[in-house]
Amino acid sequence: MPEIPIAPWGAHDGVEAAQALEELRQHLAAIVESSGDAILSKNLDGVITSWNRGAEQLFGYTAEEAVGQSVTLLIPADRLDEEPSILARLHRGERIDHFETVRRRKDGSLVDISLTVSPIRDSTGRVVGASKIARDVTDRRRVLEQQSLMLGEMQHRVKNLAAVIDGLARQSQPDDDPGVKAFVARFLGRVHALLSTGELVMSASDRHADLRQVVENVLQPFLDPSKASPITLDGPPLPLPEHTSGALALATHELATNALKYGALKVPKGRVSLTWSVEPGREADRVRIEWEERGGPKILSPPTRQGFGDRVVRSAVSREREGRTDVVFGPDGMLCRFEFLTAPKASAATTG
Question: Which DSSP string do the residues of 89-125 spell out, in sequence order?
Fold first, then answer.
């Protein structure tokens, strides 16, 4: 918007001041008239008092047809209850931002709009009317609906694919080999951990998944719903990008599997606590995640052999900034700690 030149009050006499105010009024009126958004005003009785060219284009009524009419002219019958609520809020001097609704054009067709309503005050500060800015969001809503349909189809296909993988793996395993059965079960657990995390990420508009949701999904197969959970979770909301949440989902699955076979989840009194914290920083936040086991079988010595699962755990945050993983075995249990920095904050990324 161009700057509006306003000279100091002392530089004008009464006539010049009045002329400057009139020029300012005309300038603002020109801005409103040329706006691509529909801009209209109404009094507190809901009667339209002004109507710009954008409103003509959006709703189909000329200014001569609209001014003097009730604003309910634009409201479908099933949404007439919106106007009294809007008027009540205006009487209280409230502003309404980005209220998405539906309005009716002159030809009877409906249009999806985003509506912003601001109170108009007189020289004493009393609310005497309202200005409305309406923006057509039909295309945006159509895109969102298409994205939702595509996401639903993708999720359906992923579930079908998971079922096919599950069926092939179980049908291919020999019936008399416990070792192969255990391998297949662990493999399928890893697949389902990744797929469940992928579903969370895909359903989020920012392609992030909250850590609590991720670990709850991964740990669900390890818990008996009829008993109190031996695993406690504690930490603040922590949205993570796709690659981070996927890696931590796999690591959590491996930790739970090992705890069930060898650690705290192997015995009734064993307990696991999964906690996380976020330490704010100027350029990025530091995340710490701890998996701690207590009450399991005594650990006489740390394991010497490292398999695929161990590598998954130890490399879970290796791609993160300052990512590191520490695994400590003690006589009372084991502790696995992940630590890394989040992505640089926007303000830090644009400075320097």
Answer: HHHTT--EEEEEEEEE-TTS-EEEEEEEEEEEE-TTS
Taking residue 237's Cβ as centre, other Cβ atoms within 10 Å add up to: 9
CATH code (residue 42):
3.30.450.20
Return the exposure string of 150-180: e unless at least 16 CB atoms fall within 10 Å of the residue's CB, then b: eeeeeeeeeeeebeeeeeeeeeeeeeeeeee
Stated pTM of the model: 0.55
Does 340 lie in the same domain as 266?
yes
Neighbours of 113 (CB within 10 A): 23
Q: What is the pLDDT of residues 86-137, one digit of tens each?
A: 888 888 888 888 889 999 999 999 999 998 888 888 888 888 888 898 989 8
Token pair 């739970």 in the structure block, residue: 256
Higher per-residue pLDDT: 312 or 167: 312
Q: Label residues 311-331 b or e (16+ Cβ within 10 Å = b).
A: ebbbebbeebeebebeeebee
Beta carbons within 10 angstroms of residue 3's beta carbon: 5
For residue 299, is it within any domain? yes
Buried b (16+ CB within 10 A) or exposed e, 86-96: bbeebeeeeeb
Q: At 129, which helix (H) or strand (E)?
A: strand 127-136
Verify that 128 and 254 share a domain, yes or no.
no
The closest alpha carbon to 82, from 113, 58, 106, belongs to 113
Would 12 be classed as within a structural domain?
A: no
| 194 and 333 share one domain | yes
Domain assignment present for residue 150? The answer is: no
Query: Domain range for residue 44?
Result: 35-136
